[in-house]
Amino acid sequence: MLLTEVELRDHVAADIRWEKYVLQTSTDVALQDLFNTSKEVFDGTNVRVRHILITPPKGDAAAAVKAKEQLVALKGQLDKQVAEGLAKLPADSDNLAREKARCGLLDDAFSAVAKDKSECPSKARGGDVGWFGRSGIMVEPFAKAAFALKSYQMSEPVDTPFGVHLILLTDRKPGREIKFEDVKEVVREVYAERLRDKLAADMRLKSRIEIVPVARP
Question: Residue 209: is its pLDDT beyond 90?
Fold first, then answer.
């Protein structure tokens, strides 16, 4: 690991301090609240989505705004295309037939736009990223936005470290019934992960971060 004994001791001490802090703050009340408000994180629920990714240059605020505007325009274009397709259905089509047609039209249209406009390798599959759970695979903003969607609903533009996304939910697999006591330690792990991310984000806003390369023998 190219660490001196002093550096290794500092790392171990920091890990121990963090574990003690998590244990102090992750009370049963806090963990129960996280479980009650985020059951999809723990019950095995999975979703499947397509997405369109635009990747503006890092630190370019104007480009980021333009990327969001582009995705908003694409969303409007998709809504219009689906509406035009639905207008061609027989006038006596029932609600079930119209909803089935809407899903098919939106899926096809979104896939085509993803293949043409997305900057993610998933564009080859029409933006399909496959199945994933609420935590552990996708970055938090993406997963949170995806799980908030209803079937064949599009998101607003979503910012992640990879760029700006337009997300379409195409399927959902419900999880199983679970009890808090059975997954308490998993809840604690998620609590610790979110606590670390929040603290880091807060500190990043107030800190001057400097990366100094260290010469090694």
Answer: no
Half-sphere exposure of 31 (CA within 13 A, CB side): 21
Domain that holds residue 94: 45-173
Q: For residue 179, what are the CA distances in angstroms to 71, 134, 140?
A: 40, 18, 24
36 located within any domain: no
- Alpha helix (H) residue ranges in 118-208: 140-147, 184-206
52-94 pLDDT per residue, tens: 999 999 889 999 999 999 999 999 999 999 999 999 999 999 9
Q: Is residue 34 part of a domain?
A: no
Q: Any idea which residue has 């089935």 for tokens?
A: 100
Inter-axis angle of helices 95-117 and 61-87, to 10 degrees? 140
Q: Which CATH number characterizes residue 106's domain?
A: 3.10.50.40
pLDDT tens-digit map of 131-147: 999 887 899 899 999 99
- Contact (Cβ atoms closer than 8 angstroms) between residue 71 and residue 52: yes
- Domain tally, the chain: 1
Q: pLDDT category, 215, cuts 50, 70, 90?
A: confident
Could you give the CA distance from residue 215 to residue 38 in angstroms, rounded to a whole number? Answer: 45
Q: Is residue 2 part of a domain?
A: no
Residue 12 located in a structural domain: no
Structure tokens at 17: 């301090």
CB atoms within 10 A of CB 51: 25
Query: What is the predicted pLDDT for the residue at 201?
Result: 84
